[in-house]
Structures are given as C-alpha cells and as structure tokens.
Amino acid sequence: MKLPVTMRCQCADGSFDDEPAFGIVSGDTSMVSITANANGDSMATITPADSQSHLVAITGPPTLVTDCPACSADDVTPQGSVPVPGNPAQLLVIGDTTTFPTNCPNTKIRIVAYQIQDASSVDFKINIPTKEQFGSKSSNTCNTTITTSEICSDTPSGIIHDTLSVGCNSVGGSCGYTYANQQWVFCKGPASSILATIGDLVVHNNSISVAGTTSSLKGRVFRP
Amino acid sequence: MKLMSAPALACLVLAITPPPRLCSASPKATTRNVRYGSIEGVVVDGSGAPIRGAKVFDEPLDSVRIGKDHFTRTDENGHFLLKDVPAGKTMVIATKLEDGYPDARYAVYSGDAVLPTVYVRSGETARNVLVKLLAKGGKLRGRIVEANSGVPVPRSRITLSRLDHPNWSLETDPADDGTFDFVLPTRPLRIQVTAPGFKAWTYPGPIQMVSGEQRDLLISLERLK
User: Is A90 helix (H, G, I), strand (E, B) or coil?
Assistant: First the structure.
C-alpha cells in the first residue's frame, strides 16, 4: 500500500502547516521505496524486512520558504524518518465487546478487536492483507448460513474486528456451532504466515466463547 | 525548487500519513454456498441532507457474516455502493460516530428506529436505497479509576442497557488508561461499571444525553472489603 509523504512545517506560533512532499529520497529502498504520483507528490511503500522494527531516514530537496527564514536559512532540507515495523508476528486484543444486534436483538454478538503487532509489540498501523482459517467446523444447529473471512482481504489500520454470532434464527435457545482452532494469517504473496492461533470459537445463540472464555480477552497476546 | 507560503515557518520535517479512507470497500468475506449481490443508495440525516463519509453496513437477516467488518463509505453526495452482500434479505445500516450519530448496528442504541430492509438478488444490485442515520446523540467520555489512588482499574467492564429492554445491553472495556468514549442516543440508558475486587458502580438513575451534548464522567470504584 502506498502512503503519501507529508512535509510538515512548524510555524513560529507553534502551529503546523502540512503539504504533500515531493522529490523525497529513501535511505533504504529495500524497506521504504518512494515513487511519485501523477501530481509529482511522493508516495512511500513500506516493506518489513525482518522480525525487527527499523527507522529509515528520508530526505527531500532544498526547499525555499518565502515568508520568513526557516531555521536561520531561506532554503531548508526536509528530513525525517519512517518507522518500519518488523514482520507481523502477533495479535494483541485491544477490545472485546458483547452486545445484541439491531437486526435480531435477542441473539448475542461478540466483537473481538485485535491489533496486529510485530515481534517487538510495535503496532502495525497500516493496511495489510489477512485472513482467518479453521482446523474444523461443526454443523450449525441454528441452521443459519455462515460467511467467514477465509480469503485474504484488507485490514485497515492493522486492526481486525472479528465479529462472532449465529445470526438471526428461529431456533433460539443455545443453538450454535463450534469452529475449532481459529488462526489469523498474514497474506504475504504466495507465502502466508500464521499471525496468531486464537483457539476454538464456540458460538451459541446466547453465549460466545473465544479461546475458552466468555470473558473479555482484552490485553491478551496471541502468537502463532 | 518549490515555494512555500505558510507564514512564519520555523523548520521542516517529513512524516508519512495514511490517506483518508473514503469509499473504500471493506474486506470481502469468503463464501460457502453463498451468492452475492450489491446495494446502492444514499445516506441522509434526519433533515434529508446527504451525509459524506458515513459507514454503511449490510446486516443479513437470512445468513450471518462472521470475521472482519464489511462496509463501505459514502461519497461527497452521500452515495454508496456496497458490494459482496450475501443474497437474501438484509438490513442496511449507516453510522457516523465522529459526527455524533450513534451506532445503529446495536440494539442498545437503535431504539425503535425503522431501518431499511432490502432483498438482494444474486448478481444484481438493489438500487435507490435510502438510509437514515439515527438522530444525533451526545458524546459521553469518562475515566474509571480506583477511588483511593486514582489509578485505572484493571479488568473493569462498562455495561450500557436500555430501560425498555434491559437485556439488549452492550458490555465493553475501557482503554488501558481507564478512559472510554461513547456516542449515546438521546433515549435514557442505564450505565454500570464492574471490576473484580471492586464494588459495582451504577449511574444514579438513567443517563439521558441531549443531542450535541458532551459530558464527562469520572468514575471512582471502591475496593471490596
């Protein structure tokens, strides 16, 4: 995913002025590659190199500031650094909500929010492709058709909101299903890697257990 | 060389920022024996004005989608096209929390609102669906701390529930620093906070927000003796 590079100018009054940057050069093109869009503005593509996080220096061409001298000079050389996380390696639970949906308010729904992190617990704030997979699936005694996220797709801001429910049904009670050994996968080209093994999803009309508990998982880290 | 005209500049740094996500399709879920169609329409507020940047979700009635969120966002005219919707009957729900519209996906917020239900046929697009946001609510911000020390209480849980349907509740966590942030409808709700080893805290009476209001709560939990 390409991200725009912004040139931020701090004014004497403490405010900031942001503009698209241009002509930016990366100090390590293997991790941060810079291209120009149709307007000539710089766009960065971040590629984790290994299990560690890195800072990659980037610089721009001398820029003339017209209204006042900046840093005691008319021309300044923009510079900064880009944090490059290591390969995604684990999931941190940042939220766990249980509620009832508007479309069928007598059926429980649970939303577990996972933040993708590298092995050093640095958050992935960028969009990366992920999918889920299961070891096995039981039949669903609520008789609802279930759609899952087993094909690679975007994960905006590196946060997975995993919604679990049996859906609207006429069976009620404790009908449900068990999807065993849920895993989240980082889709890295043809070679995917396991981000985290969550465990069993035991999803009933009136109770939802994830990784063996119906209680909040907030703060828990799941690894491959 | 590029000229910059911002006044009184002091220095320059570079930063990389993610682009705004407008009209971005959400992940396509996989399917087993499920066929898909699309929904096209407009999101408006209570006055009928189109709303830009609202999230639009399909909430199927004939099936269930588990896993990642599935949504799109409206464009500057309030228009949306939501793809990969399982064929069948589905409710269409719009939210815009950042502008104070409560999340209509959950019964605790949606109240008695009538939300559009459409029938989606495989390979076809259900068109001209008008989706109204809920009426603007109020923002409730708060912090949960231990009464004596003022530090955040670990493993605390917040429960919101309706007066007319107490079972239609929402139970969630505060952030690590004990803070929370809700967009509540203007209907009265109950709010309770619990934590292991602490006395439960309940807001005295129902909490009822005024549209556009912002309210702050400091919740001090006392340890059980």
Answer: strand
Using the beta-carbon criterion (under 8 Å), do B13 and A101 form an inter-chain contact?
A: no
Which one, of A218, A5, A183, A204, lies nearest residue A109 by Cα? Answer: A204
Q: Which of A90, A108, A56, A76 is closest to A7 using CA atoms?
A: A76
- The DSSP annotation for A198-220 comes to EEEEEEESS-EEETTBSS--TT-
pLDDT score, position A14: 64
**In the predicted model, is pLDDT for residue A165 greater than 80?**
yes
In DSSP terms, A82 is beta-bridged to A56
Give the nearest chain B residue to A44 (CA atoms): B16
Which of residues A137 and A45 earns the better pLDDT score? A137
Over the stretch B129-186, which tens digit does the pLDDT of each residue have? 999 999 999 999 999 999 999 999 989 999 999 999 998 999 999 999 999 999 999 9
Q: Is B66:B30 a contact under the CB 8 Å cutoff?
A: no
What tokens were used for B45?
């507020």
Question: Would the CB atoms of A58 and B106 count as touching at under 8 Å?
Answer: no
Q: What is the ipTM of this complex?
A: 0.84
Task: Decide which of A64 and B48 is more confident.
Answer: B48
Contact B15 A5 (CB under 8 A): yes
Q: With beta carbons under 8 A apart, name residues in chain B contacting A46.
A: 16
Residue B166 DSSP one-character state: T
A145, A152, A182, best to mutate vs chain B, most B CBs in 10 Å: A145
DSSP states of B28-61: PPP-SS--EEEEEEEEE-TTS-B-TT-EEEEEES
pLDDT in tens, B108-129: 999 777 889 999 999 999 999 9
What's residue A126's pLDDT? 83
Mutate to test the interface with A, among B63, B64, B168 (most CBs of A within 10 A): B64
Cβ-Cβ pairs closer than 8 A, A with B, add up to 241
* B18·A3 Cβ contact <8 A: yes
CB spacing of B8 vs A68 below 8 angstroms? yes
Q: Closest approach of chain B CAs to the CA of A123, in angstroms?
A: 14
Q: What is the mean pLDDT of chain A?
A: 88
How confident is the model at residue A188, as a pLDDT?
78
Furthest-apart CA atoms within chain B: distance in Å: 70
Cβ contacts of residue B67 below 8 Å, gap of 6+? A132, A147, A148, A149, A150, A162, A163, B27, B29
Q: Answer whether residue B26 shows pLDDT above 50.
A: no
Q: Measure in Å the smallest separation between the Cα of A190 and chain B Cα atoms.
A: 18
Which single residue is written with the structure tokens 């999340």?
B103
Identify residue B5 by its one-letter amino acid code.
S
